[in-house]
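Two proteins were folded this term; both appear here.
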Amino acid sequence: MNEPASRLDLLRFARRVVVQQATAALRQIDGWIADEERREAERRRAEEVRPSPSDWLIQYGLNRNNIDAVHAGDCWAARRSGRCRPASREQALEALAHHVKACEFCRPDTALGLPG
């Protein structure tokens, strides 16, 4: 016949269960850490290969043909429009010389040394 398990046997069983669960939880957490380390490495690589932002931006109209405005490269309004393309200093100066309006927030005309 089977004897009832002693208190010591039950405690040893409970310990094995806790060790097994803790080991599984640690494996899961280690997996999460590895995933996050991989994501961080991918973010760093993406930052390294991302081209440096342009100093000047030209904002195009809705039809993408006409030029609406000139912006400094870090202008928040340019990012909001979503219709800007990088431009060289010469392109920005040329656009302003052809009476394209300068952004009223970042004032690229002033930054380029043109009278306001």
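Next, the second protein.
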Amino acid sequence: MDTQLDIHHSLSGDRGRYWADLAPGEQAEMTYRRRPDGSIVIDHTGVPRAFEGRGIALQLVKRAIEDARKGGFRIVPQCPYVAVQFRRHPDWADLLA
């Protein structure tokens, strides 16, 4: 996707969510839970089928990477998509929990 998405973040208790509005009624999202040690477990990434293949999910992951670097926390990539992205980006290895 050529366009940089406006990615939002919310946290409620130990559950968090990154999301982007793509079209009316259409959102991409990535969800996680925060562990007692401060790390996050990313457990789901979803992009509506009509928007797949545009790099949207990767933008969500990159936002979490940016937040982890700024916030000093680590990530457990439980979601298969996120795990693949960690393998493709060895420069993120220092953020693995």
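The CA atoms of residues 25 and 82 lie 24 Å apart. The chain has two helices and five strands. These notes refer to the second protein only.
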